[in-house]
Amino acid sequence: MGRIVPFILCIVFLSGCFGNLSPLPPVHPLVTVRGKVVDAVTGAGVEGAQVTLRDFPERFDLTASDGSFLLPRVPAGRQVFVVYSTGYAPKSEAVDIPSGPSSFSLTIELAPLLGKLVGYVWDEEGNPVSGATVTVDGTYTTTTDGSGSFALSNLPVGKAVLVVEKEGFVPYSEEVEIAYLSVTVVQVTLARPSPAKSIIE
């Protein structure tokens, strides 16, 4: 009996010490993640990118026209966001989601897949045409040098429209395919406009 009393007193003492503790917080509070996927070069939002939680693949979203996305009920703690988009290198980014706020914002940058376009511009007699304006998709532009050649680097991969213009020649356009980490070579022949036919009355 002498040994039982101290044991009971010990239990009562421990109960008094821990009885007033606040309830433990949830193990993984759920947070709403609002984010944006942007082009690492231009900073513009990337539309149609798929954003997925690696460990919770059922939580995913496609970015809107401005690159924004929304993932509700994301467990707090370190989460890995996996992002895919055509024309960009896939990216996995680890982010520490805080458990305090009910929402969290982040920005994910995607590196565009890039290629190079090299070309030569001639006239119908086979002479090089210098000073011709070369434009790809209305955004990337350069001019031909004295040998009629040109080069444009860091072009987004995929199909693009090439336009070549020079005063005294008919404008030329064609669709080209820019490949990742490759050089696409084109040869362009510029034609002179046909002489206007005189009308004999």
What would you say this structure looks like, in words?
With 201 residues, the chain is mainly beta. Helix content is 7%, strand content 50%. The strands form 4 sheets. It has a 4-stranded antiparallel sheet, with no helix packed on it. The longest helix is centred in the first third of the chain and has 15 residues. The model has no long low-confidence stretch (mean pLDDT 87).
Keywords:
2 domains; Immunoglobulin-like; 201 residues; four-stranded antiparallel beta sheet; 1 helix; mainly beta; rod-shaped
Number of strands: 14
What would CATH call the architecture of the largest domain? Sandwich
Widest sheet: strand ordering: 3-2-5-6
Number of domains: 2
pLDDT < 50 runs, ≥5 residues: none
Structural class: mainly beta
CATH topology term of the largest domain: Immunoglobulin-like
The CATH class of the largest domain, by name, is Mainly Beta
Sketch the major β-sheet.
Answer: 4 strands, antiparallel
Q: What is the rounded Rg?
A: 32 Å
Order of helices and strands: HEEEEEEEEEEEEEE
Q: Could you estimate the helical fraction of the residues in percent?
A: under 10%
- Share of β-strand residues: over 45%
